Amino acid sequence: MTELRLDGKTDDGSHLSLVDTDGNNYSLRISDTLRATVNQPRLTSVPAMDAVETISVKEIQRRLRAGDSFEQIAREGQTTVDKVERFSGPVMQEREYILENARNLIMRRDIHRIDLTFREVVLAKLAARGVDTDEVSWNTWRQLDGTWHIELHYPNRDGNGIATWNFDLSRRALDASDDNGAWLIDEEAPVRAPSTAIIYSEPSHSSRREEVAPEPEIVRIADLLNAPEEKAETPRLAVIRETPSAADSQDGITARAKVPSWDEIMFGRKSEEPTEEDN
């Protein structure tokens, strides 16, 4: 077995830089499994090579409240995951407090007039479809308008299903923000905002060309007065008849109207005409 020695983190902070006894370099991705296997404080205290810390404690907590992961904040702020975790306590407690308020929100009553919470309604809907409710996970973060984004992950036949809602703590209001969220609480699916069309920057592109409407034709009154008069043909009505008379033919009548029989009305077929033997 080749022994590897830790040489630090890579520049992007997502991998560990390792070297063997022969001087060969290796990289190992910093995954959740790796963190759970090794000593967490020792691993996260390894700084990136030539890193200069560029993030404050206030910015760390703001980004945690907005839902950014520890790894993303540490990587982009040129700091360690250990420092991000050190100041994450108050924010993570706030996010858990919001989740508990949302999950305990009363949604409806059952046939026995027992109050059902948001958590109970969602888990009952998933359990009825054979979903292991112990495998679901909740998450939340604050949005720019002050409301909270609630997200639920649950196993399904495609691997992982996601349902989302918007939660307003001050109004105690919870609304679905996607189709899965609406399905789980028996609401109508939210109206999707229409996507904007692409506008190309090139002036010659066909999407930026304006359709020129044809100019209306100008007719002068003098032209109308001098135009030769045309005798309009009087339309004649043609009535469908079977055996028109001579006078009918002069009037444009070509056939005699026929009243449909009962068989034609009821069964859609012509009735058999009487023959000479029937007469």
TrEMBL record:
Residues 1-167 form the DUF3071 domain. Residues 233-279 are annotated as: Disordered. NCBIfam families: SepH (NF040712). This is DUF3071 domain-containing protein. It comes from Candidatus Planktophila sulfonica.
